[in-house]
Amino acid sequence: MIHRLAGAALRAFLVAFVVALPAMALPDMPSDVSQMVLLAALVGALLTVVEYTAVFPSLIEFRAAPPYNRLRFATLAVIVVLLTVIARHSLHPTLVGSALTSLGSMIGAAMDFPFSPVRLMLVGLPVDASSGTVALVRAAAGIAYFLSLVLVVVFVIVVRILNWPIRKHAFNVWVNLPLFDPTAGGDVLHRLKRDAHFNVALGFLLPFLIPAAIRVAADLGSALPFSGPLTMVWVMTAWAFLPASLMMRGVALMRIADLIEEKRRRAYAQSEHLQPA
């Protein structure tokens, strides 16, 4: 119990820190914005404590199948930290910010080809955007999208080479998939594969759909999300991380479906072998 409480408290602190970091690091934040960010950090910490102190999870998937959530949180934290440093550099230049901005600019330039997600994000900028804004968005988009791709590749390696999630212990489907209802109807294996394909497809399409949605909203009169550094950090983070997280979930569900199918095949083969002649 004490170990579970300590782990939940540490996770809650890390979640609150990541949520509050951009608002704390970026200068000249309005007081109302800081209060909203503080409230969001407290809510995130509270949800984390409740979820990780419970014996069985209710929201977080694959809680008992590391390093799924650890990879996701680590990538999210790195994206938020790097984008915060880049955004702060545009207001208060530093050597670290200059190095990260240069790295992001190189990655963004390499990914800035026709119909790429980075190009679509740049197309969403207003026509009168300054060269500094374009360079900032390209650097942030390049480094965020690159890290999201790294997340997916690393998780695929963990699944295929390190035999996730059964390398160290058995996998409990119902504990690790609290949002999956096995009694909803239909074959569980078919539903898992269908959800896996849907998540991978949606994760692939979202980096293209989000810039289009931003552009449509701008044409309808809504404010662009690049007007402030804090908004830019979180929009870029969501644009890069959410699709990668969906693709990661799709890969995980397909892996679980393969394990169930393999177990069924062994059970059927054993039952046929034991049938009387």
TrEMBL record:
<keyword id="KW-1133">Transmembrane helix</keyword>
<protein>
    <submittedName>
        <fullName>Uncharacterized protein</fullName>
    </submittedName>
</protein>
<feature type="transmembrane region" description="Helical">
    <location>
        <begin position="238"/>
        <end position="257"/>
    </location>
</feature>
<feature type="transmembrane region" description="Helical">
    <location>
        <begin position="198"/>
        <end position="218"/>
    </location>
</feature>
<feature type="transmembrane region" description="Helical">
    <location>
        <begin position="35"/>
        <end position="59"/>
    </location>
</feature>
<keyword id="KW-0812">Transmembrane</keyword>
<feature type="transmembrane region" description="Helical">
    <location>
        <begin position="143"/>
        <end position="162"/>
    </location>
</feature>
<keyword id="KW-0472">Membrane</keyword>
<feature type="transmembrane region" description="Helical">
    <location>
        <begin position="71"/>
        <end position="89"/>
    </location>
</feature>
